[in-house]
Amino acid sequence: MIDLENIQRIFPVGDQEVHALRDINLHIDAGEYLSIMGPSGSGKSTLLNLLGLLDRPTAGRYRLDGQDVTTLSDNQQAHLRRERIGFVFQFFHLVPRLTAAQNIELPMVLAGLPVDARQLRVQQALRDMGISDRAGHRPDQLSGGQRQRVAIARATVMQPGLLLADEPTGNLDRASGKDVVDILETLQRRGITLIVVTHDPELGERAQRRLHMVDGTIVNDTAKP
Amino acid sequence: MRSIDIARYALGSLNGARSRTALMLLAMSIGVASVLVLTSLGEAARRYVSGEFASLGTNLVIVLPGRTETAGGEPSMLIGDTPRALTLGDAQALLRSSLIRRVAPLNIGSAPVSYGGLERDIPIWGSTAELLEIRHWKMGLGRFLPKAEWDRASPVCVLGQKVRKELFGNQPVLGEWVRIGDRRFRVIGILESAGESLGVAVEDMVIVPVASIQRLFNTSSLFRILVEARSREAIPRVIEHITRTIRERHQGEEDITVITQDAVLATFDNILQALTLTVAGIAAISLGVAGILIMNVMLVAVAQRTTEIGLLKALGAPGRQIINLFLAEAALLSLLGAGLGLVIGQIGNGLIGYIYPDLPMGTPLWAFVAAIGVALGTGLLFSLLPARRAARLDPVQALARR
User: Which site among A110, A150, A197 would you substitute to test the B interface, given the most B Cβ atoms closer than 10 Å to its Cβ?
Assistant: First the structure.
């Protein structure tokens, strides 16, 4: 599903250049459950952003489902993000003035889906996440766990093949963190490719495949002993 | 993204920042309202002046004896030729055109008018029944000169209000005989007071049949011929007709001057139109200021909603869509502001109309269109920069903030 070849990402910082990613080669199959760990500044978030088409590599080639996406225009990349990639963030990033249902609906609104189809899928997603009774609540009326469930519902409502989670439990207490992980893993078992970036070894160890990054390189990959 | 969803989203974000929205609406509506009120004032002035002119008589063409040259002195004096006088026959000859509705010959002189022991020198106008309609005067009492053959010198007269007051006080006046010069005239009507119109004191005059005044002053010439064209468009042809007719009657000499009231009116109209436009332009500056305010507040909004914009991008909104969202917000603001401004402006116009009932207040249609158009235009124009800035935000950095 994902093929990275010789990916480099260099940020100019003042006069200097920072190599956030050095020569990354990575292949990920559809349906894999993969965690990326490593110390701060190791480049794991940069890698996730690249995979999510939020950032472009300085050099190298990224193929998603066999299609070279590094050469695509911004609009084409936006279209791919909308249709094939879901994001879950540490800070949820819900729109504060919208209700839970409206937040979940947002990607479909942006995609221009008809209203009745949207309603149907929102109801389904709310049921799947077990927060049907919270549909009309705004984010500030929801608990952290509920907010993250709304965010996951929003990330998956367009039925993407790839779900990227950046510290999904980083802002949650233990119990709701566990709930969120359960939901993510259920989604993965149903066929979605799940990539989790985390500091938390306990969360990282749950993945079938684990990458360890240091200084912009992958130092350990459990799939390549 | 569907337009209805764009509108709903924009409305939602406007509703989410109420004080910001209220401020922008206020600025926009004041701009629109000032455009409307100021153009209405200018337009009212224009209509007021036009109305004054119309009260002098519409489509009026005035024929004067003698040809006025704008330069070089009087050529006729050099060759010893005096201008031929206009006669009643000339005036009657003009009537033979379908383009001309009415003709009134006019002679003016001054003579002592007396009743009882009172006597005064008063301007005497000699004309025909048509004068009343051509000058748009109204009768206060009795009737105007009778419609009769122009050369019949009936001994009747019509008085202005002031003349009546001075000679008769509060006594009944209709049917009384006054002496004008060495002749006696019966009073058959009193003009309604119409104030001063183009230098003619309607109150202070006596009107007698044109044939009577010609006998009174022992003359056969006319001072003016007043001609009313059938329509405004016919005026150029009427002028041509008059010139030709008189030339034929005067053995080929073009010895008259034709003045149209229309030319004077058109000049005034142009001046006042320019004035209205100037005032509207000044008001439009306030709309421009409102536009800059919108830009300012929009920039702040983009800064405040950085994460939201980053999120929209992560969810797959292309830059174009984000620009549309912000422009929709600006368009909604502008339209709401313009709507509010229309209401405020109309209230303002109503108030002015109430305080100064003489002013024919009324906003020209183009001012409505222009005010709304400029409001929408500035709103969108000044939001373009903030919207583009939003669209160019780097989603990674935008989302890195909490």
Answer: A110
| Number of domains within chain B | 2
Q: Residue A12: phi, psi to the nearest 5?
A: -75, 125
Q: Which residue of A has its CA nearest to B13?
A: A97
Q: Give domain status of residue B71, yes or no.
A: no
Is A110 within 8 Å of B13 when comparing Cβ atoms?
Answer: no
What are chain A's domains?
2-221 (3.40.50.300)
Q: Which domain holds residue B148?
A: 105-230
Count interface pairs A-B at CB distance under 8 A.
68
Sort out which chain B residues have CB atoms less than 8 A from A75's CB and list them: 318-320
> Which are the contacts of B398, defined by CB distance < 8 A and separation ≥ 6?
B306, B307, B309, B310, B311, B313
Q: Give me the phi and psi of A34, to 5 degrees please.
A: -130, 135
ipTM entry? 0.91
Per-residue pLDDT at B114 exceeds 80:
yes
Which residue blocks in B191-234 are alpha helix, DSSP H? Answer: 210-216
- Residue range A103-158, pLDDT digits in tens: 999 999 999 999 999 999 999 999 999 999 999 999 999 999 999 999 999 999 99
Distance from CA of B397 to the nearest CA of A (A): 10
Same domain for B280 and B386, yes or no, is: yes
Taking CB atoms and an 8 Å cutoff, what residues of chain A touch B396? 49, 54-55
DSSP assignment of A122-155: HHHHHHHHT-GGGTT--GGGS-HHHHHHHHHHHH
Could you tell me the two tokens for B95?
């009537």
Beta-bridge partners for A18: A11
